[in-house]
Amino acid sequence: MSLAETLERPAARKPLIPPFPPRASENLSAWGRLAAIRNNAIASWGPRAYEEEIICGRFFGRSSFILNRPDAIKHVLVDNYENYTRTPAGIRVLQPILGEGLLLAEGRAWKNQRRTLAPAFVPRAMSTLVPHMLSATDDAVTALSTSCGVPVDLREAMQRLALDIAGRTMFSFEIERHGTSLRNFVNEYGARLARPRFLDLVLPPGWPSPQDISRALFRRRWTRFMRGLIAERRAMSNGDAAPRDLFDLMVAARDPETGRAFTDEQLGDQVSTMILAGHETTATALFWALYLLSLDPAAYCPA
Ligand code: HEM
User: Fold this and answer.
1) Which of 78, 109, 210, 282 is the most buried (most CB within 10 A)?
2) Burial class (CB in 10 A: 0-12, 13-18, 19+), 70
3) Which fold has domain 107-294?
4) Residue whose CB lies within 8 A of the most ligand 1 atoms, among 73, 281, 290, for a mutation test
5) From atom 18 of ligand 1, which residue's Cα is the shortest distance away?
6) Where along the chain do its domains lie?
7) Ligand 1 centroid, distance to 151 Cα (angstroms)
8) What are the angstrom distances between the C-alpha of 201 and each of 26, 174, 207, 219, 276?
9) What is the pLDDT of residues 96-140, one digit of tens each?
């Protein structure tokens, strides 16, 4: 189905949505939008991004889309993935921490990685991962329930929980002690390097921005950290026993056509991708779900 046909299909039910961020504005100039992107890339599109299912805009000569409808998302990400690319600024900001992993891979490389990783995410594999999720959630609930009467930064608590789940499901309990370093790396990147600056947005791809130098230095430390984790995890041999976590599942993954496994470098990028892509999104979704529930006592505390 073409994008035009997809656009013509009837609108689905409107979801209950969080309030618009205060800076969202309909009529930002290109420069205003550049400034807004640093704070919240979606808000820089204005309220339409939260109200409409598909919007298209042009920004510095490029067409970009916001898609809020499953069939349109499938059209772009699955059925016609070769026709769409990520923005150069997005790649510039994400590559130092995600490398060549699944989220940033494009075209044939994406297809190969996708089919190699698919068995690690089938429903059956979830039974390996769910116990790690439950134990991390139990710990978070216990910690929150002991803070009775004291205000809680729910965003921070959910980020901690999601990162804990991402770490434990990836590497099991044995390397939980690396959790603090993992959090520090992620927080450092988020605070210092993940927000695009003006030059990140306007320089042509391949021209390094001043921030890129800091990002390259970060990448060197990050990949060393990842290599250490992987070496340590590999040393905890499991014999022929059942997989214990996502790492075991990803080590066992083979490209169904070539039979190739991931190299250690590729594994490092996939591990980084799963941890990063898996925690920020879920933390934000959990935060908003809990916040919206808190506004509706009848929903979370039915009589
Ligand atoms: C509420 C939770 C989540 C949301 C809202 C979310 C959202 C998204 C979105 C919008 C994309 C497409 C991004 C793009 O290509 O531009 C994506 C891709 C991806 N997400 Fe998530 N995600 C969530 C949870 C997770 C979790 C838990 C993991 C890992 C365990 C994960 C791993 C990935 C990966 C690897 C991709 C790239 C997939 C590909 O290109 O084939 N996500 N996610």
Assistant:
1) 282
2) exposed
3) Cytochrome p450 (1.10.630)
4) 281
5) 103
6) 3-84, 107-294
7) 31
8) 20, 41, 11, 20, 22
9) 999 999 999 998 899 999 999 999 999 999 999 999 999 999 999
